[in-house]
């Protein structure tokens, strides 16, 4: 007698085949959905690539007028041109936008939902092409500036006093002027720097603020005090008998001593070199040491301390600059600060 086939084994074999076929079909359907989605996105991207401001403006007016004719009149285009734009919009968003009813043309539900997004889109595009402005009275902009303490005292100090009234919310983040500052300016880590005797570079915008001269700073009762009264200006020969305190200023490669008081440049009388102008008064007030400081700083020191000063060597001085990068040429905030610095330091 022939043996009947094992039903469970056959069902398992064909059941497994059906399951494998079903899984493959699901994977194929998923891949097809992905492909259709990618094609849909590509089609939308292609449509957006050809989208222009006139199309958006047309849609904005159409949403307000519900009339192709009146929209065409507002835009100054022909009725056929308006119809072509409407066809493009319909094709792009997959909605008729405007339909004919018994009571006339009406916007679709989807079209009505587009009022705010279209207004926002046009406003955002307008913002992109709107010239930037700067209102110092309302701005809380933070200026990033590299400077020596002299720049703070001679330029930023007088400006802050004025800004307290005209631009009360402006902020200043001042970092020490060091060789790295020039790289920071190039990289955009700072907005500008204050510096003297700078060689011009193609990528820097250099604005001279003023020409500065020197005065010699010394204590009251110093032997130079009586000597200075009889002379228009002291010379290196006049200060050579005394110990010299020198300021070391930052350059593009490192600190350099300001040797204007030296008679022969050998540095034999320079007892103290340091990179701070505002500490010089503390170094000369109790000794016969002398220091040459910029005139603007000497004037402030005389107001705050009993120290004396006298003009030093006619023709000895330096120009002082506000330096920024070429990319800030049309920055309204930086341009405004530059103009204020010019005006304030001119009359300071």
TrEMBL record:
The keyword Cytoplasm does not apply. It holds the Pfam family LysR_substrate. Transmembrane segments: none annotated. CDD domains: PBP2_Nitroaromatics_like (cd08417). Keywords: DNA-binding, Transcription, Transcription regulation. Residues 51-108 form the HTH lysR-type domain. It comes from the Bacteria. Belongs to the LysR transcriptional regulatory family. This is LysR family transcriptional regulator. It comes from Ruegeria spongiae. The lineage of its organism: Bacteria, Pseudomonadati, Pseudomonadota, Alphaproteobacteria, Rhodobacterales.
């Amino acid at each position: 007698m022939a043996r009947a086939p094992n039903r469970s084994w056959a069902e398992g074999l064909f059941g497994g085949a059906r399951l494998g076929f079903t899984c493959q079909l699901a994977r194929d359907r998923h891949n097809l959905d992905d492909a259709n989605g990618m094609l849909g996105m590509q089609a939308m991207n292609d449509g957006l690539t050809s989208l222009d401001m006139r199309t958006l403006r047309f849609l904005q007016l159409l949403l307000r007028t519900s009339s192709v004719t009146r929209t065409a009149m507002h835009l100054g285009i022909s009725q056929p041109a308006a119809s072509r734009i409407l066809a493009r919009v319909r094709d792009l968003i997959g909605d008729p936008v405007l339909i004919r009813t018994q009571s006339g043309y009406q916007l679709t539900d989807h079209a009505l939902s587009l009022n705010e997004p279209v207004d926002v889109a046009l406003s955002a595009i307008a913002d992109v092409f709107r010239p930037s402005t700067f209102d110092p009275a309302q701005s809380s902009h933070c200026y990033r500036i590299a400077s020596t303490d002299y720049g703070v005292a001679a330029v930023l100090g007088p400006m802050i006093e004025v800004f307290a009234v005209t631009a009360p919310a402006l902020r200043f983040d001042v970092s020490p002027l060091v060789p790295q500052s020039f790289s920071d300016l190039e990289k955009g880590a700072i907005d500008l720097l204050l510096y003297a005797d700078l060689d011009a570079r193609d990528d820097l915008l250099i604005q001279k603020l003023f020409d500065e001269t020197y005065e010699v700073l010394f204590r009251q009762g110093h032997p130079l005090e009586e000597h200075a009264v009889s002379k228009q200006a002291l010379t290196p020969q006049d200060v050579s008998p005394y110990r010299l305190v020198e300021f070391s200023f930052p350059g593009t490669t490192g600190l350099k001593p300001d040797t204007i008081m030296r008679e022969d440049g050998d540095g034999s009388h320079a007892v103290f070199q340091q990179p701070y102008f505002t500490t010089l008064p503390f170094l000369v007030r109790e000794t016969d040491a002398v220091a040459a400081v910029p005139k603007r700083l000497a004037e402030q020191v005389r107001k705050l301390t009993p120290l004396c000063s006298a003009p030093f060597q006619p023709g000895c001085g330096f120009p002082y600059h506000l330096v920024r990068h070429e990319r800030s040429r049309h920055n309204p905030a930086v341009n405004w600060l530059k103009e204020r610095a010019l005006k304030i330091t001119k009359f300071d």
